[in-house]
């Protein structure tokens, strides 16, 4: 919920030939924005998993859940971290070649547009995002995690006997 960031998005993407889905969060009144470009769709909330299945790039703060969900669907990222685990997630996304990090203090509408264009134009970001997504899909999710924990506990129990 950062109105100044959304204004930079308007400026950066106002003339692109694409639909820009901008989710502003539940605390922001969408009506407060003036001059919303015609190619923008503003929402307080969207079913993110459904939207990500159609996205070509995902601009995000880099929370672990959102980033993992995007990568699950092979969507490359532009990460603008703010706090918590976000800088670490942004670093890892960059290391695996699945996206680019933008330093929040350096953010401008020009830099945002250039970075999104770079991520969309360079196919290696998409390829690397797909590879990470494939790895996530093959990992087995929580069911496998439960199985592995159970195996570890059983092995510990059997060693005690």
From TrEMBL:
<dbReference type="InterPro" id="IPR050271">
    <property type="entry name" value="UDP-glycosyltransferase"/>
</dbReference>
<comment type="similarity">
    <text>Belongs to the UDP-glycosyltransferase family.</text>
</comment>
<dbReference type="GO" id="GO:0016758">
    <property type="term" value="F:hexosyltransferase activity"/>
</dbReference>
<keyword id="KW-0328">Glycosyltransferase</keyword>
<keyword id="KW-0808">Transferase</keyword>
<feature type="domain" description="Erythromycin biosynthesis protein CIII-like C-terminal">
    <location>
        <begin position="11"/>
        <end position="134"/>
    </location>
</feature>
<dbReference type="InterPro" id="IPR002213">
    <property type="entry name" value="UDP_glucos_trans"/>
</dbReference>
<dbReference type="InterPro" id="IPR010610">
    <property type="entry name" value="EryCIII-like_C"/>
</dbReference>
<protein>
    <submittedName>
        <fullName>Glycosyl transferase</fullName>
    </submittedName>
</protein>
<dbReference type="Pfam" id="PF06722">
    <property type="entry name" value="EryCIII-like_C"/>
</dbReference>
<dbReference type="GO" id="GO:0008194">
    <property type="term" value="F:UDP-glycosyltransferase activity"/>
</dbReference>
């Amino acid at each position: 919920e950062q109105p100044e960031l959304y204004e930079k998005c308007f400026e950066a993407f106002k003339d692109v030939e694409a639909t820009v889905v901008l989710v502003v969060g539940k605390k922001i009144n969408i009506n407060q924005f003036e001059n919303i470009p015609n190619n923008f769709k503003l929402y307080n909330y969207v079913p993110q998993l459904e939207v990500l299945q159609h996205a070509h790039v995902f601009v995000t703060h880099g929370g672990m859940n959102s980033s993992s969900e995007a990568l699950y669907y092979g969507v490359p990222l532009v990460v603008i971290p703010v706090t918590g685990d976000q800088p670490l997630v942004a670093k890892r996304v960059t290391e695996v070649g699945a996206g680019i990090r933008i330093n929040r203090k350096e953010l401008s509408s020009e830099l945002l547009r250039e970075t999104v264009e770079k991520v969309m134009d360079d196919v290696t970001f998409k390829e690397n995002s797909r590879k990470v997504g494939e790895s996530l899909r093959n990992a087995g999710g929580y069911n496998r995690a439960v199985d592995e924990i159970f195996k570890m506990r059983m092995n510990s129990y059997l060693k005690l006997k």
